[in-house]
Inverse folding.
């Protein structure tokens, strides 16, 4: 139940908030897709922690690149 709520919140962000900003994700897959994949694979708690770690790496001084959920 919580897992579905987290994914719904991410999809809401992607649909309504993300289009208001310029594209800036330096990773593939995007941070929001990474979050959905992490929550689906590891559950809500660990998926959220993995997503936060990924978001903290998303800054101009990190090279980015291909970084799938492992």
């Amino acid at each position: 139940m919580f897992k579905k709520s987290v994914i719904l919140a991410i999809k809401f962000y992607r649909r309504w908030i993300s289009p208001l900003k310029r594209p800036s994700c330096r990773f593939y897959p995007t941070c929001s897709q990474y979050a959905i994949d992490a929550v689906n694979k590891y559950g809500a708690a660990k998926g959220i922690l993995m997503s936060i770690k990924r978001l903290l790496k998303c800054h101009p001084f990190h090279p980015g690149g291909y970084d799938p959920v492992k």
